[in-house]
Every structure is written in C-alpha cells, then in structure tokens.
Task: structure prediction
Amino acid sequence: MTTNDGKQRIATLVAPDIYCLEIPTPFDVGAVNVYLLKGERLTLVDVGPSTDDAWAALTNGLESIGVSVEDIEQVILTHHHVDHCGQLEKVRELSGAKTFAHPQATPYVQQDEQFMTFHDQFFEELYIQSGVPEKKMVIISKFHKLMKTFSAPSQIDFHLKHEQKVPYLEDWQVLYTPGHSQSHLSLYRAKDQVMIGGDHIIKRISSNAFIEPPRNRTSTRPLTLIQYRTALQMCADMEIKQVLSGHGEPVYNHRELILARLQKNWERTDTLRRLLADGEKTAFELNALLFPGLYQKELPLTLSETLGHIDLLMILHQIEVREQDRVLYYHL
Result:
C-alpha cells in the first residue's frame, strides 16, 4: 500500500519486539519515526503529525505487520512537538488507548488556552528583551497556527517520571532527557541496551534546545542548552548499543556522537564570545551574526540556540549584561 506521496510504508523490525514506522511530515526535518512495542500491552511511541499522508503511513505501516490502529492499547509520547503528537486524538478515538507522557507535555497536547496565553506573554517579553524587531513578533501567532494545523487537542492520561518502569512494559525504564523540550522523555531497555531516544539523540542533526516557558509564572526560564548538555552527558555514561531516534537512522556510536556535539557547543560559544569582542550586542544581533543564512527563516530555532550559548557564558561569568528600555545588551 502507498501513501499520497507515492511511497510504500512498511514497518521495519529494528530490535526484538520493536518495529519502526517512518511517517512523513511537512517540515524541513523530514520523516518522523514512530515505534511499535510488542509487550504486555501493544504500545505506540509517538504518532506523527496530523496530516492525511501521516495517517496513511501510520495505518499502512501497522497493517504491514498485521496490526490496526484499533489494536493499540497505549501511547507514549517522547515530547509534545506536533510532528510527534499531532494525530494522537485520532489514535485515541479509534483505539481507546491511554496516553503516557511527561507532565509538561499536557498543556501543549490539550492546547490549554490559559497556558497558551501565558506562553504568548512569556515569548513577547523574551523577544523584547532579545531585541527582536516588532515586525517579527508575528512568529508568536505563527506557533499557534502550526499547532492548530498539524495537531488536534487531545489528552494525557498518566504522567511518567525519571527512572520509573514503563507501565505494562516492565523491561523498559523512563529517562527524563530535557533540553530539546521540557517534556522530553527517552525509553531504555537494559537487557539489550536499546534506547528509544526521540529527538534527544539524532545521527544527522544536532537537536535544537528550544527555549520554552517555565512551568508557571513564578518560575525562572529553563536554561535549555544547559539541560540538554546534562542529559547528553547522562546518556554518554550509559551502556547503549543502539539509539532508535525520532528522525533518521539508528545511532550505534552514541558516546562518540555526544562528545562531538558537546565540543561543537563549546566552539559556538567561543564564536559568540569573539563576536562580543568589538562591543555589546543584543541576543537578536548575535543571532543574526551566528546564523546569517538561517535566522530570518527559522528565528525561534536560531534565537533559542543563541540564548542557550549566552546562558553558558553567563554561568561561566565570561559576559555581563545591562538592561535599557526592557532590552538586554551583552558585553565581555
């Protein structure tokens, strides 16, 4: 069977009792990997975005191994981004499956209006502090359009926490791996050293440590790049033979890849420090210098990366900041 893009979708056995379904997305990152785990309960890890092609790929992939959507008994979300959770509600409606995720995925998956108002206020203030021009503030409303276009509101039934066993999959352990998102979880099976890594560890691209609002209005902004580096270092210390990623092929050399990513972080931090050598700059100005060919198109992504490196330098007391008219200016 084929989807609208003309490609045949067949689930691939990638480890004992684990099938990978490649689901197309309309995003630059390309296809997303969804995993079917056969255990005490038939479990789907992630579901793909809400598009006709994604739904066809999911149903056809399941059918290729003799399974239907109606057979799914539970869903685990690695995180709340729409390419991973968008068609959750459709799966739930057909199967009655319960959903497990990190608590911070809940307001995004539910598209909670009160939280989204807080979300918008947080980013408006963040972008003002970063020196983002007013005409570019439209990126805040674009986020809402993205969510509503590629994700239907749904529900999280149960929350997962770090190092607990996965319900009804006793061989699997939950790992909290924040950075790419505040809700990011990975799953680890010690007996064969397999990790389902979502977007935490991807072979061909370094995951962006997206800036997100804190849990509530009284908390400070999460230092997402610091979180990401810490979670990577945790995984580097683990015995992992295979990382089944959210995008692309499996990773078999996780320590080597992680060390290369961490080193790349420091190189970019050094670049940012050099850019400040000739005078103070806003985060937006630094962002344009760090990513001259990309920042106009991918401002939320590149600004998150820039702010992450500013956070690193601030923690190391290598740069200072002054505020003027709500805008933050950084200098050596």
